[in-house]
Design brief:
- The protein is an alpha/beta fold.
- Helices cover about 50% and strands about 10% of the residues.
- The protein contains 14 helices and 5 strands.
- The protein has helices at about 25-35, 40-45, 45-55, 60-85, 105-115, 115-120, 135-150, 160-170, 175-180, 200-210, 230, 235-250, 260-265, 280-285; strands at about 125-130, 155, 185-190, 215-220, 250-255.
- Strands 2-3-4-1-5 form a 5-stranded parallel β-sheet.
- Helix 4 (about 60-85) runs antiparallel to helix 7, helix 9 crosses helix 10 (about 200-210) and helix 10 (about 200-210) runs parallel beside helix 12.
- The radius of gyration is 26 Å and the shape is globular.
- It binds adenosine-5'-diphosphate and magnesium ion.
- Adenosine-5'-diphosphate (ADP) binds near residues 97 and 98.
Length: about 290
């Protein structure tokens, strides 16, 4: 036992007190649990020990029971923190995704992606497709799963990300901002290509993609096929350089189908059933996304 465990030079867990600890010893035990940051055990110590005694658990099983309680508590707290740091615009999950909705999204693939192996391997994921087919929904849902699996995640919109980078560059703080966006294990960039980007934005995006290359995953949603990214960045050379890195280790999911929003409206009778489909609907959709 280390000296730290022997306040006033005395061992805390002496063998001669099998019945339990004396009051000062119990206080010292709680102080040690505080110092070791085992707060869940500290808060529920009596209950947990009573439960263990009630079930007739061995010492090793009791220790397991205590450790599991602490680990579950820490995981739950980390998940809550992670969700708030991620800045998701709303809550969406895979369980709420309707695969029956005339969509090309494959349930098995989404479940596989939710396991997060692509994030562990630093791969990128692209969701491409017209508005309303669930790209943002799936991006948030996978982001939430990633956090539950312990991956730090940040959700941002492409325009806001690039506005931040352009501004930071103007203020001489580009390095700081790039480091900020390079930090999370998963960075979700939503709606690339919906709105025109500021000039020079392509170069800044390239720097970000290079910095994250093979280190952290990017999940990008876009209504533009990758062949159109030259137009998105208003610079074909930069777009090629971005795609070169982005697509090197990547999974590209192209979603086809009807806009879910319009489908709902059609179902509720707000739109006629013979109303024109996808192309016209796409034009009518707001670019704001979700
Ligand atoms: P996109 O990002 O492709 O434009 P969104 O993910 O924003 O589309 O979807 C628009 C709305 O429709 C959201 O509220 C989303 O939750 C919902 N939605 C889209 N597809 C589905 C689906 N297959 N099942 C359930 N909800 C869906
Ligand atoms: Mg969207």
């Amino acid at each position: 036992m280390s000296d730290a465990m022997k306040p006033h030079g005395r061992e805390v867990c002496r063998e001669e007190i099998p019945e339990g600890l004396t009051v000062p010893e119990d206080e010292r035990l709680r102080a040690m649990l505080t110092r070791l940051k085992l707060t869940a055990i500290r808060e529920r110590l009596d209950t947990l020990l009573d439960e263990a005694a009630g079930k007739g658990l061995s010492f090793r099983q009791t220790f397991y029971h205590l450790c599991r309680t602490e680990v579950e508590h820490k995981d739950a707290r980390r998940t809550v923190m992670g969700m708030s740091i991620a800045h998701f615009p709303c809550v969406r999950d895979l369980e709420g995704f309707d695969y029956g909705a005339r969509t090309s999204v494959d349930r098995r693939q989404m479940e596989e992606l939710s396991a997060g192996r692509w994030i562990a391997g630093g791969e990128n994921l692209l969701f491409l497709g017209p508005p309303g087919v669930g790209k943002t929904h799936l991006a948030i849902a996978l982001g939430r799963k990633a956090i539950e699996r312990g991956y730090t995640t940040l959700f941002t919109n492409a325009v806001s990300l690039l506005t931040q980078l352009v501004r930071a560059q103007g203020e001489g703080k580009l390095e700081e901002r790039l480091a900020w966006y390079a930090k999370p294990k998963l960075l979700i960039v939503d709606e690339l290509g919906y709105l025109p980007l500021e000039s020079g934005a392509g170069h800044l995006f390239f720097q970000l993609v290079s910095r994250r290359y093979e280190r952290g995953s990017l999940l990008i949603t876009s209504n533009r096929a990758v062949g159109e990214w030259g137009m998105v960045f208003d610079d074909a050379v930069v777009a090629t350089a971005i795609l070169d890195r982005l697509l090197h280790h990547s999974i590209v999911v192209t979603i086809r189908g009807e806009s879910y929003r319009l489908r709902e409206k059609r179902r509720s009778g707000m739109i006629r059933n013979d109303a024109p489909d996808t192309a016209a609907e796409t034009a009518k959709e707001t670019p704001a996304g979700i």
